[in-house]
Design brief:
The protein has no helices and 23 strands. It is mostly beta strands.
Length: 257
């Protein structure tokens, strides 16, 4: 793609007027750049005014033409909409809700078709999920675990993995009937949160995975390894996408295969 210094966190895909569209947030120039898929290739289409200090963007598949924006140090998300043949200038979202003064947005992303974000409010964390087949956002409150949390990742359902400031250990928390169950993952001291993700099978069950060192490792509910995927001839995996229960795509480290 014709992009310089592209970051995956600053890109999101969506459908605009029936066309597959990729939107990139350009922090240097405070712009949103649009690329459309025509004749089986991507083309630069247009640019619209944006804002600086964007941490990540994600387009909810449940709401065509809407882009959510995580801005550094902002207590709430911003939103841009496709209307009147252009992207609107980003504005705080939701506009009709009061935001606690100490609220912090920790993460905004889209995984397995679900747009999600995590907020920290005092000592509580709240996970917000917006599946592609729902009009409303789901919320799950993790009481009492948010103090000093600085990074977080979602592992499907009501499971989150996170790290606290000045700590090496990762923590895994999940909700059981509104009660938070937390486990310290001492075996994953130096692991990066970005190594973890999950897939959803045909039974709507989530399966956690970790991509590190070019190898996919499947994980159980306690994030212990249970299986691996290796490419032939010691070729390392750069990226992995699950298509269905029987098929997946893997990109090798060179990016050519």
């Amino acid at each position: 793609l014709p992009m310089e210094k592209a970051s995956l966190k600053l890109n999101t895909s969506l459908i605009i007027d029936g066309q597959k569209t990729l939107v990139q947030a350009d922090n240097s120039n405070a712009l949103f750049k649009l690329f459309v898929n025509k004749e089986q290739s991507w083309h630069a289409e247009n640019t619209f005014p944006g804002i600086r200090n964007v941490e990540s963007i994600a387009a909810p598949l449940a709401k065509e033409g809407k882009i959510l924006i995580h801005v550094k140090d902002s207590p709430k998300l911003f939103c841009s909409k496709w209307e009147n043949n252009r992207l609107s200038y980003p504005s705080p979202w939701p506009s009709n809700e009061k935001t606690p003064k100490d609220q912090v947005i920790l993460k905004l992303a889209r995984t397995a078709g679900v747009t999600w974000w995590v907020t920290r409010n005092g000592k509580d964390l709240e996970l917000h999920t917006w599946p592609m087949d729902q009009k409303e956002v789901n919320s799950a409150l993790f009481k009492g675990i948010g103090d000093k949390v600085e990074d977080v990742n979602w592992l499907g359902g009501t499971r989150i993995i996170y790290r606290k400031k000045n700590k090496q250990e990762l923590l895994l928390s999940q909700l059981h009937e509104e009660h938070v169950v937390t486990e310290e993952l001492s075996k994953l001291k130096k692991a990066s949160l970005n190594e973890f993700s999950f897939v959803v099978n045909s039974k709507k069950q989530t399966q956690a995975l970790r991509l590190v060192g070019g190898i996919i490792t499947w994980l159980n509910d306690k994030l212990d390894p249970i299986d691996q995927i290796n490419l032939p001839n010691s070729i390392k995996i750069r990226a992995y996408v699950q298509i269905d229960d029987q098929e997946a795509y893997a990109l090798d480290q060179t990016g050519r295969n």
